[in-house]
Amino acid sequence: MPEDERQSTPAASPSGTGPRRSDAEDVRAVAQLVVDATLGVTGVVQSMHHTIGGAPARLFSSPAYAIVRGVTRVVGAATDRALTGLAPLLSERTPGPHRHALLSALNGVLGDRLAETKSPLALPMTLFSEGKNGWQRP
After folding, report:
1. What is residue 10's DSSP assignment?
2. Which pTM does this prediction carry?
3. CB atoms inside a 10 Å sphere around CB 25
4. Nearest-angstrom CA–CA distance, 58 and 46
5. Considering only 9-18, 20-29, 62-71, 92-101, which range has the smallest mean pLDDT?
């Protein structure tokens, strides 16, 4: 999804109250994470092969890695386009506590990346006490 189209969504409380969410938006954001992770791993593996194999590895493997990156980007764009078209058919609902717990864990690991890309999966830094929103970072 293009960066300018991504928007951060306010956090719902763990109890499940808050703004309604589109399932399609969540699936698109997860698909984008998968594409980003695939591109990142491809870069790491390519760098490792170049370090171990030297010039011959660079010569023969660089085109293969370029193809992997290109195919990954095409699949990501096609997935995003398909999910955009399916959005009206997918449900919209108020998120529950399970979604919030999963997003909290995801943000604990990838929160900076989610915020940088303005992913709809990004949650603002918030403290909860007994299921109630106690503090939110400005």
Report:
1. P
2. 0.71
3. 21
4. 8
5. 9-18
Q: Where are the alpha helices (DSSP H) in the chain?
A: 23-86, 97-116
Residue 4 has pLDDT above 50, yes or no: no
137 close to 111: Cβ distance less than 8 angstroms? no
Cβ-based burial of 109 (10 A; exposed 0-12, middle 13-18, buried ≥19): exposed
Q: For the chain, which residues make up each domain, given as ranges?
A: 3-7+20-136
Distance separating alpha carbons of residues 21 and 12, to the nearest angstrom: 10
- For residues 47 and 37, give the distance between their C-alpha atoms in angstroms, rounded to a whole number: 15
Environment class of 16 (CB within 10 Å of its CB; exposed 0-12, middle 13-18, buried 19+): middle
Beta strands at 92-93 and 21-22: parallel, antiparallel or unpaired: antiparallel
pLDDT band for 82, please (50, 70, 90 cuts).
Answer: very high
In the numeric block, which tokens belong to residue 78?
């096609």
Give the type of residue at 16. Answer: G
